[in-house]
What we know:
The chain is mainly beta and about 375 residues long. Helices cover about 10% and strands about 40% of the residues. It is built from five helices and 27 strands.
Amino acid sequence: MKRSLLYPVLALVLLCLQSACSENPKHLVLDLTDYDSIAVSIDYLILSNYTQLQPYIRNGEMYVVGYNYYEHYYDFINLSGGKHFSVAMQREGADGVLTPGNFVVLQDKIVCKNQEGVVVVGMDGKVKHRLPIQELVHPENVYSATPRTATLGNYNYWDADGDCIFIPLYPMESGVPAGKIYDSEKRTLEPLPFSYPDSIQQSIQSLGSLSAPSVNGDADRIVYNYPVSSKVYQYDRKTKETKVVDIRTLTVSNELDISEFNIPEQKGRFTKVLKSSRFNWVHYNAKSGRYYRVHLASTESLKTMFDRKSYLMVYDEKKNETKEYLLPADFSNVYVVQDNVMYVAYKKNTDDVFSLAKIELEKL
């Protein structure tokens, strides 16, 4: 072979070897095609889109619950063929409730957060009790219930273990617990057993709601993560040890550059937060050792922020295998998980039909 041809051939061989080595056979990026659709007919006014949904089981029937800001109701949409119903709240008076943000639905009540603090509402719409913000942050007095910068949506997911609600807060000092666990039945508070990473805590006012952890768990463990990082933390309640699992993606940045959010002008920070990629809350199946997480790609324009790509990651810890599924373009970013089934609201619903995709997670 002539020397003039030898070098290009060798370069091509080296390039192919490098490409083959970079492809991880245990990390695949796929299109999601294995799912069903549910179309639920509604005979009264609901929202075509909700900013957040929560699961609810009653008498063996599955519901998704969303806040209807037009009516100031919580709509309970039955996915099992039964009747739908709503919990109507008052806007004023002894049972008045200000517009809620994050919420979680327990068997006999709804626990929500708003400007006044935490409010527990019965299924009759009446207020059972209130936890003012002053009590929520007492006695440490080192917290803010919300960051002082502008935020949008409910990126930090609320969850409960029985009657106990995991409530992330925004610490103004490093090294303090990341929030509280509120027992809505006993009306007691205890600190979350972990703190913010220093880099995130020191940038709370820049990151806004992108700084707050999403927390869920059960009697054995607490699982949490931050929207700006691919790392997932699992706190063992018995040993009090924390395991870190970095579920890395091939489709967005695994660690957002926090310094890029240090923008002096508030509008600029707000725009940066909205356009940024982010990691949503993690669902962990202890029996199978699998983690499930949705993340959103960044967007160049606010006009396309609801049309950005989103991915469902499945990480099998026992097999050390990762799959990333590009979600269909007509999926919204509003979803719930119940009994290892994910229900995702479609972007375009109508006032009388509510449609969701149904994903059997264990089949992925």
